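Sample entry follows:

_____
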Amino acid sequence: MELSKARELIQKYKDGTLTPAEKAILESWYLDLAKAERTPIDAETLESHLDEVWNALPLNNKAEIERGKVLSLFWRFVAAASVILILGVGTYFFYTGKNTAPIAEVVHPTDVAPGESKAVLTLADGAEIVLDSIVNGQLAREGNTSIVKTNPGEIVYTPSGEKTGGDNTLIYNTITTPKAGQFQVRLPDGTKVWLNAQSSVRFPTAFTGPERVVEIMGEVYFEVAKMTAGQRKVPFKVLAGKQLVEVLGTRFNINSYQDEGKIKTTLLEGSIKVRESGNANGGVLLRPGQQSELAAAGKDRAGSKQGFDVKTVNAGAVVAWKDGFFRFDNVGLPELMRQLARWYDMDVVYRAPAGDHEFVGQIERSAPLSKVLKILEMGDVHFRVEGKTIVVTE
């Protein structure tokens, strides 16, 4: 961009007439200056200009990231010759790649609404209750437990305290979310469970044994309540495919979608042990901020410890889906598109190679599909929507 055009945009910023697209153009120009070796621009001057532009950006005031931390991240991308793209109130998005993407308006002939709170509750007798279509109040009674819908997108299991007979057989329920759905449930022990799209959790309607065991598929976030029987702590266990997680009281996330090829377990608080089910002596202990990866059957796990790879991650980014955001941290296009496919109930077809694109940033999950694709297209990726299919094009 010519210097005269840049000055024009800066003046429009000062006048308060700079459009979001022009702000992105101005950002990209400064980043190009930073990466061009022939440009005699000192760091102090560049930082001053960038700070001006930063103050004009429509970031969400409720974002978790503090301004200083974001600026630090921003400068990391400047050093890497990357592009920051910012569109709309409450939405910011970073794209990292080899080429600076053009800024262009893309019009999509159709649009797809984002997912919402919806799920199906399957009772012990096989009866199914569509939770999103039921009014608040008691839904059913399983044994000594009442099932109550308290808010849209949430149900609570409440033990009555009554004792009946001597039958200690556990009664199991299952909550399943479809594509474009999410839901929350509070288990009888007080544990809170969030289900992402295309996920499920199977659990007893009362925890009466020496341990609490639930089974999941897909992606599920837990805030486990502590439970005691006399002086003994009752452990909580989560079975996800061939992986078993053992906890006492903690917050963690498990991503076990089959199409991801691995099970990712991320610890936010407390302590958990992750092991392969059937192997009582193996496994690894995770600390807050760590994530374990267990490859799917048949995958190469050479060099990993007890079958697991453990790394430090941004745990807040991992569970951002629970708080209404897509958060990407150097995510490749195929993984990103799988997330979109689940949330918008779409299929994805590639008519062009996925390439080595990597994405970093945040987009609201409440955004319609067209807005999300429009942001991604600024990263030199192109799409076409055909009915229920997102086509990745040249």
Observations:
- The two ends are 25 Å apart (CA to CA).
- Residues 34-43, 52-92, 95-109, 298-305 have pLDDT under 50 and may be disordered.
